[in-house]
Amino acid sequence: MLEVFRDYLKLSKRGRNYVAICPFHSDSHPSLSVSVEKQVWRCFVCNVEGLVEYFVAKIENLSINEAKQLIATKYNLDQQQVIIQPKFITLFF
Rounded CA gap, 41 and 47, in Å? Predict the structure, then answer.
């Protein structure tokens, strides 16, 4: 999962998580956090969160299924390894 985010963001380690400038709003301080342990991400300013496929769908302007296919192809995974979770995590950290 972290490899996917590294392809889109400049990540910095902060404690157990990684932080970055959010690409979804005007951001000057890292407000997007990625939890590798919990396999979720969240921007604490624009309150957008989810799993890796939702991030890719949002940044690439794709459907969730298209994002899942892109991740599987780009990272040489079986599509079954890219899990779609319809309801996103609301308790992040």
Answer: 10
Confidence of residue 8 (pLDDT cuts 50, 70, 90): very high
- Its pTM stands at 0.82
Please list, in sequence order, all residues whose beta carbon lies within 8 angstroms of the beta carbon of residue 5, skipping any fewer than 6 positions away. Answer: 11, 18, 20, 34, 41, 52, 55
**Look-up: residue for tokens 């794709």?**
62
Domains observed in the chain: 2-81 (3.90.580.10)
CA-to-CA separations, 77 to 6, 8, 65, 88, in angstroms, rounded:
17, 18, 14, 22
